[in-house]
Automatic annotation (TrEMBL):
Pfam families, per the entry: Laminin_G_2 (PF02210)
Parts of the chain that traverse the membrane: none
Domain of life: Eukaryota
GO BP, one annotated term: developmental growth
Name of the protein in its database record: EYS protein
Species classification: Eukaryota, Metazoa, Chordata, Craniata, Vertebrata
Residue intervals of the Laminin G domain: 1-129, 210-398
Organism, scientific name: Piaya cayana (Common squirrel cuckoo)
EGF-like domain boundaries: 130-166, 167-205
Entry keywords, A to Z: Calcium, Disulfide bond, EGF-like domain, Glycoprotein, Repeat, Signal
Signal peptide start-end: none
Gene3D superfamilies hit by this protein: 2.60.120.200, Laminin (2.10.25.10)
């Protein structure tokens, strides 16, 4: 399988092969080669149907039915490859040659690649294309960069301040405590403080301790499993207690939650009932929904356990086995490679639940979680020692 974007006689060409045939799309207009014009290029596919857009002019091609997943499992190359004989002969029209020019702002599946010296795995013969200290993203939020003798300066739009226009003007004199986040409220020309885990209060200046985590919305805990390298990922297990008065919400997500290649095990609510979704690498997530009992709005704690034995999934709700299913009898993928990352209640601030889970869950969790145990560990996770925001003491009251 491959997907390749190349410049052919001045035209942009997209070629991809999903395992059965090579599909080719090419722009109608040529790119400017004067070295002074930046072009905006969008290319990709939905299933086996491809699209190519150069400076807003779009072409697409409906492919005949066939393979619809790009299964590469290789590095992603920009501008060239480490050895030209690695390029599939069907990926380019002529003999492959490296790209000469400038590339910036690469976004893959809504995630921007950082074209720095530190982020890529490797590279060679790459230089600075801007030629000044400004670059193209030095000034944030549509600020204008100006080269100075001592470096650069940013001219900021009215609602932003700071050396790189990084701070909302509403937060310029905020009183939010250490490690908290200032969230501007433009309509009232004010702000609110979002507290880091272990802090509470209007300005996040009160230290708290808890063993029951209370999620109020726009909340999350990100836990890194210190024993991940020692786990047998073909036999995973997670259990926890939760209570809520909401009918929708993501309770737990074992997995990185970064792109479509990430394995995950998810526990949440949909229409007031328990919803379990597991992806072991096949990129096809089949939700397991138990609709017999409602798990919201009854004021009770509910105990849920999900056990993955290769492709066999067992789900227990309040110690009753409610789901027992083999999600892939062919045993193509049998391990939950979750990267040692577990989210509870939601994802990082600004990451939409619906977008990250590709519609599997609609909203963040509002309620309480306690007694989280991974695999067969003898001790519960200490949620207080994880990363998180907007999570409070749920030990008492509502």
């Amino acid at each position: 399988d491959f997907l390749c974007i190349s410049l052919v006689n001045g035209f942009i060409q997209l070629r991809y092969n999903l395992g059965d045939k090579t599909i080719i799309l090419q722009t109608f207009q040529k790119v400017h080669t004067n070295g002074n014009t930046w072009h905006s290029l969008k290319a990709g596919r939905v299933g086996n149907e491809g699209y190519l857009d150069l400076d807003g002019i779009n072409i697409s091609q409906k492919a005949t039915p066939g393979m619809n997943a790009l299964d590469t499992h290789t590095d992603f190359f920009v501008g060239g490859v480490s050895s030209l004989n690695l390029v599939n002969s069907m990926a380019v029209e002529n003999e492959p040659t490296s790209f000469t020019g400038c590339i910036r702002e690469i976004v893959i599946n809504n995630k921007e690649l950082k074209l720095t010296t530190a982020d890529p795995k490797g590279g060679a013969n790459i230089g600075d294309c801007d030629g000044t200290v400004c670059g193209y993203t030095v000034c944030k939020n549509n600020g204008t960069c100006k080269v100075e003798n001592s470096g650069f300066s940013c001219s900021c739009p009215q609602e932003w301040i700071g050396s790189t226009c990084e701070q909302p003007i509403q937060c310029s004199q905020n009183k939010c405590g250490s490690q908290s986040l200032c969230i501007p409220q433009p309509t009232s020309f004010s702000y609110t403080c979002v507290c880091a885990l272990g802090w509470s209060g209007k300005y996040c200046d009160s230290k708290i301790q808890f063993f029951i985590a209370k999620f109020t919305g726009n909340s999350y805990i990100k836990y890194t499993d210190p024993y991940y390298r020692k786990r047998d990922l073909q036999y995973s297990r997670i259990s926890l207690n939760f209570t809520t008065n909401q009918t929708e919400g993501l309770i737990a997500w074992m997995g990185k939650g970064e792109d479509e290649d990430n394995d995950f095990l998810a526990i949440g609510l949909a229409n007031g009932t328990l919803k379990i979704v597991i992806n072991l690498g096949e990129r096809i997530s089949v939700p397991l929904i138990h609709s017999k009992y409602s798990t919201c709005c009854d004021g009770r704690w509910h105990f849920v356990t999900v056990v993955q034995n290769q492709t066999c999934i067992k789900v227990y709700l309040d110690e009753e086995l409610i789901i027992f299913e083999d999600i892939d009898p062919q045993r193509k993928y049998t391990a939950l490679n979750y990267g040692g990352i577990c989210y509870f209640g939601g994802f990082e601030i600004g990451r939409d639940i619906n977008v990250v889970t590709t519609g599997l869950f609609q909203k963040e969790f509002i309620g309480k979680i306690k007694d989280v145990v991974l695999f067969q560990d003898s001790k519960k996770i200490q949620l207080m020692k994880a990363e998180g925001y907007n999570v409070y003491n749920g030990n008492y009251g509502n």
